[in-house]
Amino acid sequence: MTSITQANFVEQTEFDQLIADNKLVVADYTAPWCGPCRVIAPLIDQLASEYGDRVRVVKVDIDKSQENAKKYGIRSIPAVLLFRDGEVVENLFGLQSYEAYSNILETQLRL
C-alpha cells in the first residue's frame, strides 16, 4: 500500500523561514471558498506525494496569510509559485494540469 503525502498548510510566520531553508518550494495559494482551488488540491497533494523527498510542497491560505499573498503579488487564485533558493522562479495561475506542475518541477530539479 502506498502512503499518500498531503501538502500541509503553512502559517504566514513560518513561510519566510521555509523558503530560506529549502532549495525548492512549491506554494499553492488557495482559499476554502475557491472552487478552482478545490479542483487542483488533489494535484498539489499528488506533487507532495511524488516529489516530497526532493521538493517542499505547501499550501498557503490567502485569508489567513494576506501579507504573504500581497508580498508575492497574488491577485487571483489558484496560484502556484515555485521558489528556488528563496526567490520566485515560476508561477502558474488558474487551473492547470498535473503535467504542467510536474514539468516545471522536473525542469527545476535538473538545474
Topology:
Blueprint: E1 8-9, H1 12-21, E2 24-30, H2 35-51, E3 56-61, H3 66-71, E4 79-84, E5 87-93, H4 98-110
Parallel strand pairs: 1-3, 2-3
Antiparallel strand pairs: 2-4, 4-5
Helix pairs in contact: 2-4
Describe the structure.
The protein is an alpha/beta fold and 111 residues long. The chain has four helices and five strands. Strands 1-3-2-4-5 form a five-stranded mixed β-sheet, with helices on both faces. The radius of gyration is 13 Å and the shape is globular. The model has no long low-confidence stretch (mean pLDDT 93).
Keywords:
single chain, 111 residues, Glutaredoxin, 4 helices, globular
CATH architecture: 3-Layer(aba) Sandwich
Strand content: 25-35%
Mean pLDDT: 93
Q: What is the straight-line distance between the termini?
A: 32 Å
What is the name of the CATH class?
Answer: Alpha Beta
Name the structural class: alpha/beta
CATH topology: Glutaredoxin
Percent range of helical residues: 40-55%
Can you tell me the residue ranges where pLDDT is under 50 for at least 5 consecutive residues?
none
